[in-house]
Amino acid sequence: MTASWIHALREVVGRKHVLEDAASLLAYESDALTLFRCSPAAVVLPQFTEEVVAIMRILHREKIPCAARGAGTGLSGGALVPEGGVILSMTRMNQILSVCEKSMCAIVQPGVVNLDLSKRVEPLGLRYAPDPASQTVSTLGGNVAENAGGPMCFLHGTTTNHLLGAKVVLSDGSLHDWSTQDDLDLRGFLCGSEGTLGVMVELTLRLITKPKRVVTMLAAYQDVAQACAAVAGIVAQGIRPVALEVMDQKAIQAVERSVYRSGLPQDAGAVLIAEIEDVGGHIEIEQERLEACLREYSPLRLEIAQTDRQRIAIWKGRKGAGGAMGQLAPDSYVMDGVVPRSKLAEVMAFVDKIEEEVGLPVANLFHAGDGNIHPHFAYDARDPKQCEAVEEAGAKILRKCLELGGSLSGEHGIGLEKQHLMREQFGEKEIALMERLRGVFNPENLLNPGKGLPMSRGCSEAFHRHKSKSRA
Ligand SMILES: Cc1cc2nc3c(=O)[nH]c(=O)nc-3n(C[C@H](O)[C@H](O)[C@H](O)COP(=O)(O)OP(=O)(O)OC[C@H]3O[C@@H](n4cnc5c(N)ncnc54)[C@H](O)[C@@H]3O)c2cc1C
Q1: Pocket of ligand 1, candidates 33, 135, 138: which has the most ligand atoms within 8 Å of its Cβ, to mutate?
Q2: pLDDT tens-digit profile of 127-156?
Q3: Which residue has a Cα nearest atom 50 of ligand 1?
Q4: CA of 74 to the centre of ligand 1 (A)
Q5: Is 285 exposed, middle or buried (0-12, 13-18, 19+ CB in 10 A)?
Q6: Cα gap 359→142, rounded to integer Å
Q7: Rounded to an integer, what distance in angstroms lies between the CA atom of residue 167 and that of residue 386?
Q8: According to the model, what pLDDT value does residue 458 have?
């Protein structure tokens, strides 16, 4: 017999927007970190704010745990609910509500895909700066919840620097407007809260002007250490590129064997992509300084994109690299940690050591300017031993990041993946304070339970860790 709360949800959004059959739910049992899986009891797809309010009231009355979900590209196990829970898929809330050219901002629903906003404002000479490599798919709501970064965030800052306001529905169904910044900055608090404070239903985002000119360079180096040294050198000389991205040889080769192939030099141990923008009319001077600095570190080759086509090809390789990892193994575990830029070469040497220990290939592509590393472990999720091995290896690398003065996450969030390591970065007092703050907004822990902060044992068992995939 269908539960009364399912009937109630159907009344709010219509029968076809409440999914309950096993085949439909399969797509919602994990995000892009497939180490964690848990099938929801139902998925509900609202289109309007009033529907989200009504849904949250029903779920609150029934004490049913729930989580919002954008495109499900998250890499820390964020958009999952424990058994019996409900997912609110925000993909039907995908309207750009208004664009104000004069104030350089846009009001959007949270399910708008990141790149769609930039495409929409491009004819006005504007763009939305945060550009995660998943920007063709990931949603702006998911980006805010994870405080997403991207190659261009080295100069322009991550999502938190571009969120001007938000309308949020709390777990009890109350609707709030967090758009003022002159008092306690709830807007800033929301950014990076991993969907644990409320469901975002409307966002006001800052737009920036498109640069007059852009110069993109690709330097091929002997190895990753040399590329990292060049990154530290560029920043130390006061050069301000928009992006400083590194890919190692495994990543380059995976790209070149995939549909994202873009002519990257396969003999190089690493490539460094550096891009500068013309903001104040001094791009020629910056270009000279950047080129000289890249040459100081003895590149095997240095290419300077002369046309838009060449520039797009370079970025096609970098942005497609995550997807190209499918060339290495059936599954990929993408880690995310941060170290001070000066420690990049040291942490990458440690990643090499772990790769040898674990015996599985690790490709590296990372936001080097921000010290944000992303080792990609290639493994087979059908083998529970490999699942355990990559997870343990990931924890070792994160501990190394902490030892070097870094942190557990640059942009993918804590989610389920890293919550058990939070006590290694933060003291008991800090964790208790974060729990109390979260409790103000989500007192019964019904909204996205188990994410971000250390879980109690009972709660962690509600999610299936290492449930290996069965494939035909
Ligand atoms: C190939 C690939 C490349 C990637 N590259 C990058 C990168 O360069 N930079 C980067 O930062 N990340 C990157 N990611 C990770 C991921 O794309 C980002 O974390 C992105 O912000 C997630 O957006 P999403 O819409 O898929 O959110 P989901 O995965 O659906 O959800 C992520 C979190 O947001 C919450 N959430 C979603 N919508 C709402 C809402 N409306 N209200 C409240 N909470 C909400 C969910 O509950 C969950 O906790 C990459 C992922 C992949 C697969």
Answers
A1: 138
A2: 999 999 999 999 999 999 999 999 999 999
A3: 134
A4: 4
A5: exposed
A6: 34
A7: 42
A8: 57
Spacing, Cα 278 to ligand 1 middle (Å): 30
CA distance 256 to 451: 36
Q: Is 138 in the pocket of ligand 1 (CB under 6 A)?
A: yes
Question: Taking a C-beta distance cutoff of 8 angstroms, is the pair 327, 254 a contact?
Answer: yes
**Is the separation of the CB atoms in 124 and 77 below 8 Å?**
no
What tokens does 143 get? 């980006």
Task: Supply the residue whose CA is at minimum distance from atom 16 of ligand 1.
Answer: 74
Domain that holds residue 260: 212-327
Which amino acid, residue 363? A
Give a yes or no: residue 21 inside a domain. no
> Is residue 230 in some structural domain?
yes
**What's the total number of domains in the chain?**
1
- The predicted pLDDT at position 470 comes to 45
> Amino acid identity, residue 245?
E
Residue 152 lies in a domain: no
Residue range 215-224, pLDDT digits in tens: 999 999 999 9
CA–centroid distance, residue 112 to ligand 1 (Å) = 12
CATH number at residue 255: 3.30.70.2190
pLDDT digits (tens, 9 = 90+) for 15-70: 999 999 999 999 999 999 999 999 999 999 999 999 999 999 999 999 999 999 99
* Separation between Cα atoms, residue 65 and residue 84, nearest integer Å: 8
319 in a structural domain? yes
